[in-house]
Automatic annotation (TrEMBL):
Cofactor note: Binds 2 manganese ions per subunit.
Family according to the record: Belongs to the peptidase M20A family.
GO biological process: one example: proteolysis
Domain Peptidase M20 dimerisation stretches: 240-397
InterPro entries the record matches: CNDP/DUG1 (IPR017153), Cyt/Met_Dipeptidase (IPR051458), Peptidase_M20 (IPR002933), Peptidase_M20_dimer (IPR011650)
Swiss-Prot/TrEMBL keywords: Hydrolase, Manganese, Metal-binding, Metalloprotease, Protease
Protein name (Swiss-Prot/TrEMBL): ZYBA0S05-00848g1_1
Site (Important for catalytic activity): H260
Residues given in the record as substrate binding sites: D227, H260, T362, R375, S449, H477
Length: 508
């Protein structure tokens, strides 16, 4: 273990003053030099490992792809073993609950492993997810999404999962390898918890965490999650809040089979016509949620909170750059960020069962499903929200006096989360960021969701830190998802430095 600043003799400590705070001893500087040097030297190995992982199309939301998700879990097991992690276990979570086409479909396994088990050290659990969002070349990708391309000119890696979340996940493996090869002891015990269902609601993981709180996860002092993004493209951030997400499916069905619109058009009630009306009643084009009672659940903005937005480095131009358009609903930084972080939003994602290919098929679909989700924020209650959503859809459908049937179901929900950005974990991560990037990070919230964050905090009774690796323009969930090589390398250096600073902090 390296020395604790408070106990070390003054003569020994040659300090580096950064921003009025003492953050580095020469001993730590030497360690960082060696670790960072190894991370730089191992760059080709790390890129190769990420490329191999990206090739496995682990799409959790598509039942037919489940064997690939399982294959990626086994790939991780292989890599963990190669690097020297121990006690590697695949935890099986049973069958996937409905709605599901195959009632026997097994959930993907959770990959647990350890590096070190020294009672004198703190224990950090790192969580990541190895599943990804769907992707297809015909969606508009400039290269095969599951064949990682290293763009030397732009110094980035393109492929599904590079930033969300395979790149950051492999980062944890890589930093252990870098420590070993640099001959530097890892300053904490590390536990990995990698799941394969995050993009589909983290089904089954809550139960596993509760079961293992006093088992595999006993003694965890802090949880660190690298699964979100910087706000923009230049300034590193640490994230202390997430929105939750409630995902819904409205199903409307009528005729026993798809019909010819020339023969039956105007003669039968069309499910898709009904569904379009139900969906269009949920939200207006300015983003206002139209479901009675939803906006009333949102906690009011306080003056103290309003001030937090003032110093954040972000602008309308950043938003436009990351969407590649000028389609913003708000112009002012505060309005944009508040609507991303602290107000709910309702998005309509798609239709299942309806014609969606090129061409001009003249069919009346017999059964259609509309998919939409609501990002939730303090003080919204998931069960109450679901009641309001179902009542709203039933009411709108009833007004149509249609002979079809309509039902709305919650597919999955995950809680929002807010933390204290001044705890020991955040302080350690802020020092690490300053050492690697030379700037203090911004403290941000995230509009996306990581459903398991609150469960870790509550079940393991410890702080959770969100330590993003990629940039705001990485295109997570979109086409041409990428991770800049500088963020991959810088992110791994920050992960390493974070563990060292956290190890020497007086509190948890
Ligand atoms: C922020 C994280 N990388 C992420 O993408 N989370 C997903 C989680 C989710 C929940 N339901 C479906 N996906 C997200 O925010 O959409
Ligand atoms: Zn993710
Ligand atoms: Zn995602």
């Amino acid at each position: 273990m390296f020395c604790n600043l408070r106990r070390a003799p003054r003569s020994f400590i040659k300090v580096l003053e950064v921003s009025h705070r003492t953050i580095m001893t020469t001993e730590l500087q030497t360690k960082f030099d060696k670790i960072f040097g190894r991370i730089d030297a191992l760059k080709p190995v790390f890129i190769e490992r990420l490329g191999q992982a990206i090739e496995i199309p682990a799409v959790s939301g598509d039942e037919t792809m489940r064997p690939h998700v399982v294959k990626k879990a086994h790939f991780l097991v292989e890599q963990l073993a190669k690097i020297g992690f121990s006690d590697i276990q695949l935890k099986h979570l049973g069958v996937q609950p409905p709605p599901v086409q195959n009632p026997d479909l097994q959930l993907p396994p959770v990959v647990l492993s350890r590096f070190g088990n020294d009672p004198a050290k703190k224990t950090v659990l790192v969580y990541g997810h190895y599943d990804v969002q769907p992707a297809a070349l015909e969606d508009g990708w400039s290269s095969e999404p599951f064949k990682m391309v290293v763009d030397e000119k732009q110094q980035l890696m393109r492929g599904r999962g590079t930033t969300d979340d395979t790149g950051p996940l492999t980062g944890w493996l890589n930093i252990v390898q870098a420590h070993k090869e640099a001959g530097i002891e890892l300053p904490v015990n590390l536990i990995t918890c990698f799941e394969g269902m995050e993009e589909s609601g983290s089904l089954g993981l809550d139960g596993l965490i509760a079961r293992e709180a006093q088992g595999y996860f006993k003694g965890v002092d802090a949880v660190c999650i690298s699964d979100n993004y910087w706000l923009g493209t230049k300034k590193p951030v640490l994230t202390y809040g997430l929105r939750g997400v409630n995902y819904y499916e409205t199903t409307i069905e009528g005729p026993a089979a798809d019909l010819h619109s020339g023969i039956f058009g105007g003669v039968v009630a069309e499910p898709l016509v009904d569904l379009v009306q139900v969906l269009s009643s949920l939200v207006d084009s300015k983003g206002k949620i139209l479901i009675d009672g939803v906006n009333e659940m949102v906690a009011p903005v306080t003056d103290k909170e309003r001030k937090l937005y003032e110093n954040i480095d972000f602008s309308l131009d950043d938003l436009n750059a990351s969407t590649g358009s000028k389609t913003a609903l708000y112009e002012k930084k505060e309005d944009i960020l508040m609507h991303r972080w602290r107000y709910p939003s309702l998005s309509i994602h798609g239709l299942e069962g309806a014609f969606s290919s090129a061409g001009a098929k003249t069919v009346i679909p017999a059964k259609v499903h509309g998919k939409f989700s609501i990002r939730t924020v303090p003080d919204m209650d998931s069960a109450k929200l679901t009641k309001l959503v179902k009542e709203h859809c039933d009411r709108v459908f009833a007004k149509l006096s249609s002979p079809n049937t309509c039902s709305t179901e919650l597919v999955h929900d995950g809680d929002y989360w807010i933390s204290d950005p001044h705890n020991a974990s955040f302080t350690a991560a802020a020092k690490a960021t300053k050492v690697v990037y030379g700037v203090e990070p911004d403290f941000t919230r995230e509009g996306g969701s990581i459903p398991i964050t609150l469960t870790f905090q509550d079940e393991l009774k410890c702080n959770v830190l969100l330590l993003p690796m990629g940039r705001g323009d990485d295109g997570a969930h979109s086409i041409n998802e990428k991770l800049d090589i500088s963020n991959f390398i810088g992110g791994m250096k920050v992960m390493s430095a974070y563990l060292h600073y956290y190890a020497e902090s007086a509190e948890n």
